[in-house]
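Subject: Protein record for review, amino acid sequence with backbone structure tokens
Concerning: The relation between a protein's sequence and the shape of its backbone.
How to read it: Take the token row as a discrete description of the fold.
Enclosed: The protein record, placed directly beneath this head.
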Amino acid sequence: MLLDNAIPLVADKLPDFSKKDLKASIEKVQQELFQFGVTGVHEAGVEQKEYQLLAELVKEDKLQLEVYVMLRPTPGNIAFAKQHGPLVNKNLIVRSFKVIGDGALGSRGAFLKQPYSDDHASHGLLTTTPEELHRIASIAESVGYQVNIHAIGDSTNRLVLDLLKDIQKRNPDHRWRIEHAQVVDPADFALFAQTGCFPSVQPTHAVSDQRWASMRLGDKRLKGAYAYKSLLEQSGMLALGTDFPVEQTNPFLTIHAAVMRRNADGDPIGGFLPEEALSEEACLRGMTIWPAYASFQEMRTGSLEKGKEATFVILAFPFRVREVFESNYAFKLFIRGRERYTSE
């Protein structure tokens, strides 16, 4: 099994799919997203050839999704950013780099301040060195790009927050993001407000990980894990997503996980860390206007206002969100209803 920085040793040698197959797959995923009412995505970690593929689909009028692109900070992408700066190509927007700060909690790759509770010999690992992170940050500042940094462990989150202290001094409206902010030392929560860091989280991760998270972290460290309400209180805004294809594309699973703190099967009964649940209104904002702000698009999309682009969905069911999710049975009924409406 290859993890984290070992993956490219094999992945870079694998044959690619044909352009025809890739375009067909993108169009298929686009239709799946439309069925769930998703009108825009933030695409994290795009290579130059992938950007060119998306640009071709825009030119062919086959890409209707709003796509906010985070480029991988490769030499080719850095040259592209220096040449073009922030770029708007109709519904394809490019003005950010995606950096992977550490690994995942499940594989014990997330970089922690203290050793794993179920592996005392390991703290996890950084997949991007602090020196490389500062180099990329300097390039991003010079070309007017945002940086979106994957940080799972509390040590990685602190490292990024310390970096953002300097960014905040030079540019108070930087909107640089921590993607996931999954395990945060409670002593560091205040730094989100102090540094202007924008947290971007995926609530379904909490209910997927609840089966083993306490084994990795121990009960004490869980107090700073999947802490979406605490992050919102510090930052005032919170971008919510699914992280598909790691999780399912269905945004209603995201709402269910954030509000009820339970998975699609209704587990755990009392909710996982229920004190960190979000309100329905916070979920709605976290999937519309706040991610628009997190991608510098709040003046053109994210809310129903005169002069903005009409990227919205009308839901074909007469329920409030809470009524839909009061029972697992009601949730399954809604999923079947969604499939019936979209098939028709």
